[in-house]
Amino acid sequence: MGNSKLYKGSLSTIILKLLSETEKMYGYEITQKVKILSYGELTITEGALYPALHKLEAEGFLEVEVFKVDNRFRKYYKLTEKGATETTSKLEELNDYIKTMQALMSPSFNLQ
């Protein structure tokens, strides 16, 4: 699957889902978790991740906490209440999309 363009439309959903399962995460941690969970099939670049995080924050779905770690400041992202609601909505939407695609790709699907 590599860096397929298919997953890019799902990046916000991926981020929201990961954050729904943990209290908070920082950017690099998100990229590594996706890599692990996808068995190396998906790689999220910083160039894709941070604009998505900033957009989710601007929409009120995430809040940021800054902590000093090893003489550096690290931004941790966590879901807001609005973000938790959005996560549920996005996951339902993605599930419906997957079901539709599976029906379309089914060997019994026939256009005649």
Topology at a glance:
Layout: H1 11-21, E1 25-26, H2 27-37, H3 46-58, E2 62-69, E3 72-79, H4 81-105
Antiparallel strand pairs: 1-3, 2-3
Helix pairs in contact: 1-4
Question: Would you kindly provide a written description of the structure presented here, covering whatever features stand out?
Answer:
- It is a single chain.
- The chain has 112 residues and is of the alpha+beta class.
- Helix content is 54%, strand content 16%.
- The chain has four helices and three strands, in the order H-E-H-H-E-E-H.
- It has a three-stranded antiparallel β-sheet.
- Helix 1 (11-21) crosses helix 4 (81-105).
- It is globular, with a radius of gyration of 16 Å.
- The two termini are 31 Å apart.
- The model has no long low-confidence stretch (mean pLDDT 90).
- This is PadR family transcriptional regulator.
- It comes from Bizionia gelidisalsuginis.
- Residues 15-87 form the Transcription regulator PadR N-terminal domain.
At a glance:
With 112 residues, the protein is of the alpha+beta class. The chain is built from four helices and three strands; from the N terminus they run αβααββα. It has a three-stranded antiparallel beta sheet with strand order 1-3-2.
Backbone CA Rg: 16 Å
- State the strand order across the main sheet: 1-3-2
Give the distance, in angstroms, between the N- and C-terminal Cα atoms.
31 Å
Point out poorly predicted stretches: none
The coarse silhouette is globular
Domain Transcription regulator PadR N-terminal: 15-87
Organism: Bizionia gelidisalsuginis
InterPro entries: Metal_resp_DNA-bind_regulator (IPR052509), Tscrpt_reg_PadR_N (IPR005149), WH-like_DNA-bd_sf (IPR036388), WH_DNA-bd_sf (IPR036390)
Protein name: PadR family transcriptional regulator
